Amino acid sequence: MKKNLPVTDTEHLLNEEDMIVTLTDPKGIITFANEAFIRISGFSKEELIGTSHNLVRHPDMPEAAFKDMWDTLKSGQSWMGLVKNRCKNGDFYWVSAFVSPCHDNNRLVGYQSVRFRPTRAAVKRAEHLYRQLRLGRKPRLMHRLDPRNLGTTVRLMVALSFAFSLQWLYAWFVFELPKTGAFLSAMGAIILTPLLAWLFSGKNRLIAARAKKVVDKPLMTLAYMGSLDESALVAHEALFNKAKISTVASRIHEISRDSELIFSQMNSAVDQTLKGVDQQLDKSQVVANAMQSLSATLRDVARNTGNASAAAQQTEISTRKGKQVLQGSVLAMESLAAEVTRASDVIHRLEGDVTSINHILDVISGIAEQTNLLALNASIEAARAGDQGRGFAVVADEVRSLASRTQQATQEIQQMIEQLQTGSKEAVKVMSRSEQKAREGVDQVSLADKALDEIAESSQIISTMNRQVAGAADEQLSVAEDVNAHIQHLAELGRSNADIALDLRKQGDELHAFSHSINITAEQLQR
């Protein structure tokens, strides 16, 4: 067996109210340790759980004691004994241990050990006995008597009483004492005392035999009681039964205490749940209101989007109409530009014709000058001819007058042609500018036509997007209504949960009262 070292001579005494509880699996591995065990042993909970219970075994404990314990437990019986345990730092403490197997549906699932503070007298006897066992000596089981020994003692006392009664009887006969009440009492004692002694001794033999079946552990009986007679066996059995009841009561008390803690935590959790449910209901109402507002907003969005889609479609139609008008304007402006171009060409040709007329007028002016010159020469010649040339002079004057008017008319025509040339040049300039403006107008109308195409396309896209937005808004409205319905359902569930929590708290209060009653009963069992 492994020895847990080091050890010291420092003892830790358990308090009167201390109860150490541990649970192990069938192999002795610790699965549960209460706070008292953790505090007294010095080990942490993490160090204890999952570790063999041998961790606290003290080297002074004889192997025979643990062998007896395991043999008893494996036979399905409970075991009670005095045990010296080692603390983590090497100190020690004594306990009176009551170990019992734990079953679940008739299947062994582990062992339960409940330990209390032993008496100092029992500790001293156990130290003496365990020391002898460690030294290899067989302890003297002093005062060990046969179960019939108590009856023998009683019979001896009865015999003495009977002899004493015979002496009284002999005295009454010899000295002829009056047969008074004392005489009758003596005779009754002679007859009844043996009968009562026989009954008493038989009953004690039965009690001792029954006690021996329960606690047939001479070593532990001697350690606890200090002797092995019938009274010690009966007292050991009583102590064993008390330990069994105390173990059950202590476990009930601990479970009740844990239950009260759980109930307190449960009530706190229920209060938190109620608070959370109230907050949930408030939040659900806020969300429900928000969802209703969202639903209304989505309806407005869907309606406005539908209106926008209709407006976009109308814009597209108007744009297409405007495009048709612009296309007509483009054709008209292109026709106007062509007409302006043709007018410009005509004016250019007119300007050329005016130039030709100028040339002709120059010729006519030259002819008029020559005619005037010839008329002058004719007048000169007519003057020389005298009367014979008078008629020719008249003709020459007429010719000169005609040439003069022709020259004057030519000058007037020349002025008019010059004015016409000036006007035609201005007209050419205006027509050129008009043609340029017309072409610029055609270009602008073309750009406007393209812009209308883009507007129409954008309107179509906007209309499509509006239809999509309207569809999405309808879907979101449907989803929002579903969410709102779910929120209302959650609110109903929250109210139902609140009712359940209230019922749970009421049941918890009832269980708490029941647990408190169990705790009181357990305390009464321990007394």
Automatic annotation (TrEMBL):
Gene Ontology CC annotations of this record? plasma membrane
Where does the PAS domain lie? 11-76
Q: Where is the Methyl-accepting transducer domain?
A: 255-491
Tell me, which GO biological process terms does this entry list?
positive aerotaxis; signal transduction
> Where is this protein localized, as stated in its record?
Cell inner membrane
Enumerate the Pfam families for this protein: MCPsignal, PAS_3
Report the transmembrane regions from the record.
154-175, 181-200
- Per its UniProt record, what SUPFAM superfamilies does this chain match? Methyl-accepting chemotaxis protein (MCP) signaling domain (SSF58104), PYP-like sensor domain (PAS domain) (SSF55785)
* Alphabetic keyword roster: Cell inner membrane, Cell membrane, Chemotaxis, Membrane, Methylation, Transducer, Transmembrane, Transmembrane helix
Record CDD domains? MCP_signal (cd11386), PAS (cd00130)
What the entry lists under InterPro entries is as follows:
MCPsignal_dom (IPR004089), PAS (IPR000014), PAS-like_dom_sf (IPR035965), PAS_fold_3 (IPR013655)
Q: Look up and give the membrane topology term.
A: Multi-pass membrane protein
Per the record, the domain of life is Bacteria
The entry assigns this protein to a family as follows: Belongs to the methyl-accepting chemotaxis (MCP) protein family.
Q: What is this protein called?
A: Methyl-accepting chemotaxis protein
